[in-house]
Specification:
Elements lengths: L1 E5 L19 E5 L2 H7 L6 E4 L6 H9 L3 E4 L8 H11 L4 E5 L6 H9 L15 E5 L2 E7 L2 E6 L5 E6 L4 E7 L5 E6 L9 E2 L4 E6 L3 E7 L2 H8 L1
Parallel strand pairs: 1-2, 1-5, 2-3, 3-4, 5-6
Antiparallel strand pairs: 6-7, 7-14, 8-13, 9-12, 9-14, 10-11, 10-13
């Protein structure tokens, strides 16, 4: 089961190729993400958070349609998005997609991205894959022993950022600058701005934690669209 989570951030473009179905997907809104969900013409199955940013009229509207409202105290340890992620995992999601997690506040954007590196109790290799999506851009996190095949277009960028010590045994294929079992230490920019050579590329890591950011260059994309 795929969970689609709407966060209370900015969605620049609808994710390309992502078809969301209320019948097939578990749609969850993290508090004010409800407005973003409704703007896409969708009704969530669950709204979770302290509900300080969701509009009361929107809450009443979806509650009347059968949406579950899970209110948490305002004084809490977790952000609304973290609570939404926990709900998705508890309800058996095997894949998690997050929309609207970028923009608005820098601290919240960074916190949302770093949530990808969090591990539930069952361990990192059993965690359902989580991706932040915006248009053709995606952000995900790889842990030791994991590999991802990315879809893109020639010229799209891929950046790799170690999140925990050294990311060891990093292997890249299908990119302009390939690597084979290389080590990327925390704080290095060695992995920034690689380029797709074909419609697919792969990233694999043996040990550590690696943030993967992939998609078109925003300025180049804006220039092509003007």
């Amino acid at each position: 089961m795929r969970a689609v989570i709407f966060a209370n951030g900015i969605l620049t473009l609808p994710p390309e190729g992502l078809e969301i179905s209320p019948d097939r997907d578990l749609i969850i809104c993290a508090d004010g993400g409800l407005a973003l969900c409704l703007a896409q013409g969708l009704t969530p199955r669950l709204v979770v958070g302290d509900l300080d940013s969701a509009r009361p009229a929107d809450l009443e509207r979806v509650a009347a349609l059968g949406t579950e409202i899970l209110r948490h105290p305002a004084r809490k340890d977790e952000t609304d998005l973290e609570l939404a992620l926990e709900s998705a995992r508890e309800r058996g999601a095997t894949e998690i997609v997050i929309l609207g997690a970028l923009g608005r506040r820098l601290d919240m954007t960074l916190a949302n991205v770093l949530l990808l590196a969090s591990s539930p109790a069952q361990g990192p290799l059993k965690e359902p894959p989580v991706r932040l999506l915006d248009g053709r851009r995606q952000v995900l996190c790889l842990r030791g022993g994991q590999k991802v095949v990315l879809q893109g277009r020639p010229g799209d960028r891929v950046s790799l950022l170690p999140l925990s010590g050294t990311a060891s045994g990093v292997t890249l294929e299908g990119l302009e600058y390939p690597l084979y079992r290389a080590d990327l230490p925390l704080g290095t920019t060695w992995g920034v701005s690689n380029l797709f050579l074909s419609p697919t590329a792969s990233v694999e890591i043996e040990e550590g934690c690696l943030l993967v950011v992939a998609g078109p260059d925003p300025e180049e994309e804006a220039g092509r669209g003007s």
